Structures are given as C-alpha cells and as structure tokens.
# Entry
Amino acid sequence: MATAETVARAAAATGGRAGTDTLGAILLPFPARTTDRASHLLEGVVSMSIRPVARVRFLVAAVAIVLTAASGVLVVAQAKREFDVVGRNYRFSVSGTDRPEIRVTEGDLVRITFTAEDIAHSFTVEDKDGSHYRIMRRAEPGRPVSFDFRADRAGSFRFYCSLTIDDKCRDMQGSLQVAPPKGQ
# Structure
C-alpha cells in the first residue's frame, strides 16, 4: 500500500494526475487503454500494482505443477527384454527358463532371437481370435532370425510352430505371458 507521502510525490511529479486504486497501489498516467479487464481504471491511468505479476507467477507455477503431475501419470515403466528361443527336437527352449515360456510386462519392448537347430521351424504367436500379436517368423537350421515387438496387450498367448514339414511340429508350443503393469 502506498503512503500518503508517496502518493503526494507521484501527484506532484505528474501534475496532479496520480492517485491510488482500491488496493492502495499508486496509479500513474499512461496512454489510455481500453480493455474490459481494465474497466475499473480511470481513463489514461494504469495500475502499477505488483499483485497482477504475483498472480501470473502463481498461475505459471500452478500450471507447471499440474503438467508435471499429469506427465508422471502418463509415464509407464518400459523395459527392453531379450530372449533366445531355440527350436529343436520338436520342442521350444527359452533362455533363462526350463519351460517354453516368455514372461514380460505390458509395455515392454521384446526382442526374440529365434534359432532352429535341426530342421526349419517357425515361431508363431496369435491370440485366440487372431486379432492381436500376429507374429510369424521362420528360421532355417543355422540361420537365426531376430525380431522386436511391443507387448501392448496383457494376457496369455500361445506360441507354436506352424510349419507342416513333420506332424510332430504341431506339438511344438509355448506361452507368452504378458502381465499388466504394476499398480493396475
């Protein structure tokens, strides 16, 4: 709030055209502005109050906090997971496990290096209705193939050999287990 002495000095310096607003801020003459937001100001006088600056700073800080919090919700932990899958003797083996099972979390980027050791085999993943994870890769003996996919749907999905070189190929199967993200 301006003191009476400060207001008197401002009035003297401006030829008597300075004053105070309802909050006690000194009003100095400037070229007239006509805006709806300044309708409480006298013609040709603009408020020099610090309060609008403080409000702007507060609003900027509040928006920054809200955006930071919102972006934290959108960030999902994603990991890159790599697996070596080998087709041999009409069975799949997966690195790091004694079962033909791949376990990942929804959102993970999965890299499979698929190798056939005895005859040509395929690595095929589909869900029950065939609408998701349409993956089919064929590997010849001694020629591994690598491919990536995003585990973007939680659930249990069967992988199998879809080749018909031998009837026993149909028995080759395993499972892709995609867990929902933690906290859901």
